[in-house]
Each structure stands twice: as C-alpha cells, then as structure tokens.
Amino acid sequence: MVKKVIDIIPPRQKPEGRAMGMPLPSPAPDPEPGMPFLAQIPLAEQEVKPKIVFNNKNYEREQEREEIFKPEGGGFFKGLPLKIGVFIAVILAGMYFWDAKFAQAVIKIWPETSVLSHETRVAIDLSVGQIDLARGTIPGFTITAEKIVAGDAPATGTKSAQGRARGAVKIFNNYTNPQTLVKNTRLQAPLEKFQPALEGDESPWFRTTESIVLPAKSSAVAQVVADGAGEKYNIEPSVFSVPGLAGTAQYTFVYAQSFEKFTGGSLDSAPEVTQEDLKNAKTEIENRAKEEIKKELVAKAKEQGLEIADESAIKFELGDPEIAAKVGDNIARIGGQINAKASVVAYKKSDLDVLGKEFVLSKLAEGSLIDENSLNFESSYAGVDEAGSMLSLDLSMRAMVYLGMIPENLKKGLSEKKAEEAELFLMNQPGTKQVEVRLSPPWRFSVPRDLDRIEIKTILE
C-alpha cells in the first residue's frame, strides 16, 4: 500500500506594522527543487501539534469495561450498608421511646347484670329536718297562699222585652158636627202595610194614648201605640180608619193619617237574674277561687324546689262570695269576688331520691355494685299514716346491679401479662361476661408494668 504524505503549508506571517520610511523585510528564499516545503521552514517557525494515539484494544470481558468506566469514588452505593444500619437504629430508637413514654392498655369488661326492684312506704314528717332511713321519713314543708279571686256566672232567667210600635198621626174631622175620640180609640191601617203579614189573632189596630176633641171641620195630632208587639207593626206612612164609627155618617169623614214610619215594635227578650242564678254564681266563684289558689301553691312549690305530695290534700279556706246582683236584675252575667286561702304539704324530690338510693344500697348483696344511671323511682300518694299526723308515699325502685371488681387488684393481676393471658385472667373473674384488651403502641404484645398506664372500663348493657 502506497503511503501518502500530505504537506500542509501554513500561511506566511504578515508583516507587522512599521513606521513610515522603514524598509520592508526581505522575502523568504525560494525552496530548493525537490525538497518538501516543510523541511525548508525553520523548526522554530513550525507549529507543534499534539500527538493523537488511538487505543485499539478489544474488551473481551464485560467486567473489564465496568472497571474502566466505573466512576471514581463509588457514587451513591458507596457506604450503603452503613446508611441502612443507621436508619434502622433510628427507627428502633423511636419505637423504644414511644413505647417507653406512651405505652398503654385499655381493658373493657362487660359484667353480668341483674335488675333489683323494691317497694317501700315513705312518710313526710313536718317535724324533722333530715332524712331518717331507719324510720323511712323525709322532711316535709308547708306551703300557703292567699289571694282575692274574681269570677262570674251567667244569668239563666229571661223576661219579655217585646216592644210595641209607636208613632204620631194627624186625625181629621171633616164632618159638620164635632167629634170626640176617647183614650184607646182604635185606628186601623190597611192590611198590606203589615210586613210580614199578620197571622192568627194578631190585630191590625193602633190605639190613641189620650182623649181628643175635634171640632167640626178641624184636625189634631195624637200619639198612637200598636195593639200588638213585633216588628211587623213598624209600618210605613199610612191612612187609618176609625172602626168604632163604622155604620155612622161620620165614618167616611173622620180618619187619621201618619207621615213617618212607626218604630219600637219588637219581639226580643231580656235576661233576668233568678234565685237559682245567684246560688250557681256563688258556687262558680268558689270553684274558680280553688283553681286559682291551687295554681298559686304549685308555682310557689316550684320556686322553692319542692313537690306537692298530693293536690287533692290541699286545704282551702274560702270567705263568702261578694255578689252585687239581686233577683230580677236584667243582666246577662253575675259577677263577684271571694277571699281565698290554701295550704298543702310538700317535700324535696332530692330527699326522696336519696332515701330511695340508700334503701336500694342497703339491699345489695356483698360485693355488688349499682349502676346509678339505671336508678328509677316512682312515687304515688298513699294518704295519711296510721297515726293520722303525716302524709305517706308509696315508693317503688328499680336499678341494675352487677358484681363489683376492685380496679387496683385487677391492674396488679394484669401487669406485664400478654394480651391472651390478660383476657384469660379477666374471664376467670366471677361475674365477667365479656372482655376486650387493647394495647398500644400497635407492636406491643404485653400489658405495661406501670399500673397508671392500665385503664379499666366497665361496660353495662
């Protein structure tokens, strides 16, 4: 293979700047014939080039390649086991600290329960100031009230208030002779003037209220009143005949005439007080007084935190009702007032509850406990005691009871026991129905040694 030599001729140096009038440098001599150009350039002027060496070694093993290209110092994986060890040590130290500071056991116990019920009689004694369990008495208190109570009652009697129509008429005497009309002379209006129409024995007459003397060819005004009661006699203006002159020559010459509508006719009735009404009004006012004074006593008892033993045992003192009405008065309601006093025996509900609770506790078997939230008392009035001096109440009591366990003793028995052992220990306790053991932190498998970190809860169902 023929080796090729390539000569690279560098550019000639350009003359540096010179001052005016200086001679130009002499040109380089021409190369000799047959000599390479580079050989003719002085070594000092030749450019030194870096030597490039190509390594053509073949990497037969992958391991050698990894060793050659492995980063200096090992990178992330250098010292990895140490880092993992430190991390695990920190985690374990944290878990130990948490367990040491916050370890806890919550023990839930469901005991076997039963219902205890009793009944007893309780006396309310006004002479004592405290509860006496042995005698079964609680203190009593007297509440009194006094007030004036007003009331009324309806009047049931009635009397007629029927009205007769009245009006003025002008009576004419057109006859040649004078005419005298005595008092209560009848004047008759046309039947069509009565609305509604007259019925049965209802008369169509109006009567003069006084005597009237009428000279010949004269007239006079007179007052008349209807012969019957009712609104139908309130007739419109009309012409009246004189029935008493019928069959005589004067009948057509003597007559009357009204110019305004008659008024006052009615069939109403008015109330009237009877003797029975006065008696009923007295009873009504007394009953009203009892109701009002009773409300007064209940309000007073509530203000003082007391309860009335029995409202039917209230003692009333009533004065005589003051009633102004009398028999025959035309009024619709009979009013009056009365002075009322009342007293009653009361007691504190809290005293009854305390006595009931103490009574229930006295009936508990040894080692049993009571669920106070389940206590229920019901009382009813039992009347006066055998001596007749005190009111009595029948008291019924119910409560849930269970066999008691001493928490401190349980904690000592549970300390440092594994969860399974703790459950077995609790289930072997008398009266235990169900248990649940919860340990924290989650990785703890035994009850803490410190008794203060053991919490026992009793679950009642």
What does this molecule look like?
The chain is α+β, with helices and mostly antiparallel strands and about 450 residues long. Among the domains are: about 100-115 and about 405-460, no CATH class; about 160-265, no CATH class. It is built from 6 helices and 22 strands. It has helices at about 60-70, 80-100, 275-305, 350-360, 405-415, 420-425, and strands at about 105-110, 115-125, 135-140, 140-155, 155-160, 165-175, 180, 185-190, 205-210, 210-215, 220-230, 240, 255-260, 270, 305-310, 315-320, 320-325, 335-345, 370-385, 390-405, 430-440, 455-460. Strands 8-9-11-6-13-12 form a 6-stranded antiparallel beta sheet, with no helix packed on it. Strands 4, 15, 16, 17 and 18 form a 5-stranded antiparallel beta sheet that branches. Strand 19 (about 370-385) and strand 20 form a beta hairpin. The chain starts with about 60 loop residues before the first helix and ends with a strand. The model is unreliable at about 15-20 (pLDDT under 50).
Descriptive tags:
461 residues; alpha+beta; 5-stranded antiparallel β-sheet; 20% helix
Which structural class should the secondary elements be placed in?
alpha+beta
From the structure provided, what is the oligomeric state, counting identical versus distinct chains? single chain
Mean pLDDT: 82
Low-confidence runs: 15-22
Morphology: elongated
Which percent band covers the strand fraction?
Answer: 25-35%
Strand order of the largest sheet: 8-9-11-6-13-12
Order of helices and strands: HHEEEEEEEEEEEEEEHEEEEHEEHHEE
How far the N terminus sits from the C terminus, by CA atoms, comes to 109 Å
- Cα radius of gyration in angstroms: 65 Å
Number of separate strands: 22
What kind of sheet is the major sheet? 6 strands, antiparallel
Number of helices: 6
Residue share in helices?
10-25%
